[in-house]
Amino acid sequence: xxxxxxxxxxxxxxxxxxxxxxxxxxxxxxxxxxxxxxxxxxxxxxxxxxxxxxxxxxxxxxxxxxxxxxxxxxxxxxxxxxxxxxxxxxxxxxxxxxxxxxxxxxxxxxxxxxxxxxxxxxxxxxxxxxxxxxxxxxxxxxxxxxxxxxxxxxxxxxxxxxxxxxxxxxxxxxxxxxxxxxxxxxxxxxxxxxxxxxxxxxxxxxxxxxxxxxxxxxxxxxxxxxxxxxxxxxxxxxxxxxxxxxxxxxxxxxxxxxxxxxxxxxxxxxxxxxxxxxxxxxxxxxxxxxxxxxxxxxxxxxx
Length: 303
Ligand SMILES: [Zn+2]
Prior knowledge:
By secondary structure, this protein is an alpha/beta fold. The protein is built from twelve helices and twelve strands.
């Protein structure tokens, strides 16, 4: 059996899967709820161990937000929570603790790998995957392998494609990055700015889409802006990589009934003739389990 762990911006997901991808157990917790000490890594190891101790594991993987050096297992740089692992050899830490071979990968690439193996992208030749979460993740699977480019960052920086040269400055050094407009965080910010009445809701994004469905508010303009920005990002990615399928993931995609038809309309208008007619744009099939499953199968990505 295989262990997959997905450490995102706010949640930790732990899954055990059979060697053919069947889910044995899956568990999700808020990072703040698993913190017991000042050592986040130790807290993660103990929390995970508590869930998986009865299973006979033969390999595992850790998906983490940020830039990962797979050889050293060290997280090269990041902001926020993942910074707490800076300089730690995660591959050894997990491998030694669970006494199994362990691999480390960027969370969006793990997500894409899970979707390619067992989700929406199965058997596709070129699949692009975009995840709208705390940040905006992206990854590409090409010819049955996660695409890494020359420096292992290939495909994962789609959130830093600029859609406005005069836009706000991004932490990456660029301006007007897609992530600043289309992550789930950015969408929430737009909503609270333009529709302040949503600020009293515990989940403003969910209520916003619900209202759109019921044609209950004046949110169409915010929706159009968000969809337009996201579609422009997708057109850029389609033009760059020529995927046959673009898989969209993240909690926002629970409203795929509203998002996907609108995206398709703009992509079919803006993309070059051939990809326009061919590319399929779909919601993730594995949802919040994709990166955990992908992480559990990282050794397959190396074959
Ligand atoms: Zn950026």
